[in-house]
Specification:
TPR_rpt; 261 residues; mainly alpha; Serine Threonine Protein Phosphatase 5, Tetratricopeptide repeat; 12 helices; globular; signal
C-alpha cells in the first residue's frame, strides 16, 4: 500500500511539472477559490519554478501563503513579483497587498511606504487611500513599534529575536482567527465596511472631552487597533473574485475590491 501511495504521489508531481505555468496558475486559482490554499500554493510554486519571471505566479503564490498565516514568506513572494511587474496596475496590486502583510506584522512604517507606492501607481483607489491613512495613524500612535521592527530586522539571526518572531506569528494567527472571514457572508462584509467608516477615529473626537486623558488614550488605541483589524479583514473577505472560465495568460483579471488578478 505504501509503495502504491509513493507511485501515485510521484505521478502527480510529474504531471504537475509537465503542465505549462499558465495552466498551473489557472488550476491554482480554482484551488484558491475553494480555499485549498496549500494546494494552490503548490501549483503556483510549480509555475514559478518553471518561469521565475512570471509576475502572476509570484503574486498569486504570495496571496496563497498569506492566507495560511505565513506573513513573512508572503512578503518575500510579493517582492519577487515586484521584480517582474511592468504595468501600473500590477505594481498597484502588489504594493497594496504588501502593505497588508506589513500591517499584519505591525510594521507600520513599511506598510506606509508600501501603500504610498501603491498610490503612486493608482492614486484613485479608495481602499488603498484608506489603508494608507490608517497605517500612518498607527505609525504615529506606535512610534516604539517602528523601532522594534527595525531592531528585529537588524538582529534577525539572533536567537532571542527568533523567539520574538515566533510569538509575533502566533499573535498574528490569533488576531486573524478572531476575525476569520470564512464565517462572514457577503452581506456581513458590506455592513462591516460601513461600520468601519463610522468607527473611524476621526468620528470619535466629539466624545473625547468627556474622558480623562489616561482613559482617552487607552480607548483611542483600542479603537484604532479594532479599525485596523476590521479594515484588513474586509480586504481579505473580497479576495479572489475571479472571472469563471476565463484563463489568464499574461493579462490580469480585474476584481472589485482586493488586489488580485
Amino acid at each position: 500500500m505504501k509503495n502504491v501511495l509513493l507511485i501515485l504521489l510521484s505521478f502527480v508531481s510529474v504531471q504537475m511539472f509537465a503542465q505549462k505555468p499558465a495552466t498551473q496558475i489557472v488550476q491554482g486559482n480554482k484551488q484558491y477559490n475553494t480555499r485549498n490554499y496549500a494546494q494552490a500554493e503548490a501549483l503556483y510554486r510549480s509555475a514559478f519554478s518553471q518561469d521565475d519571471k512570471s509576475t502572476f505566479a509570484a503574486y498569486d503564490k504570495g496571496n496563497a501563503i498569506y492566507r495560511q498565516y505565513q506573513t513573512n514568506e508572503s512578503i518575500g513572494s510579493y517582492q519577487q513579483a515586484l521584480k517582474s511587474a511592468k504595468t501600473k496596475d500590477e505594481k498597484h496590486r502588489i504594493f497594496h497587498n504588501l502593505g497588508n502583510a506589513y500591517m499584519k506584522q505591525k510594521n507600520y512604517g513599511a506598510a506606509v511606504e508600501a501603500y504610498k507606492n501603491a498610490l503612486r501607481n493608482n492614486p484613485n483607489d479608495e481602499e488603498t487611500r484608506y489603508n494608507f491613512a490608517l497605517a500612518k495613524q498607527m505609525q504615529k500612535d506606535n512610534p516604539n513599534q517602528n523601532q522594534d521592527n527595525k531592531d528585529n530586522k537588524d538582529n534577525k539571526d539572533n536567537k532571542d529575536n527568533k523567539d520574538n518572531k515566533d510569538q509575533d506569528k502566533k499573535d498574528d494567527k490569533k488576531d486573524q482567527d478572531k476575525n476569520d472571514p470564512k464565517d462572514k457572508g457577503d452581506d456581513k462584509k458590506d455592513q462591516d465596511k460601513k461600520d468601519d467608516k463610522g468607527d473611524n477615529p476621526k468620528d470619535d473626537k466629539k466624545d473625547q472631552g468627556k474622558q480623562d486623558p489616561q482613559q482617552q488614550k487607552q480607548d483611542q488605541s483600542k479603537q484604532q487597533m479594532e479599525n485596523m483589524l476590521n479594515a484588513l479583514n474586509n480586504q481579505e473577505q473580497k479576495v479572489r473574485e475571479r472571472v469563471q472560465g476565463r484563463e489568464r495568460e499574461g493579462k490580469p483579471v480585474k476584481v472589485n475590491n482586493t488586489k488580485d488578478w
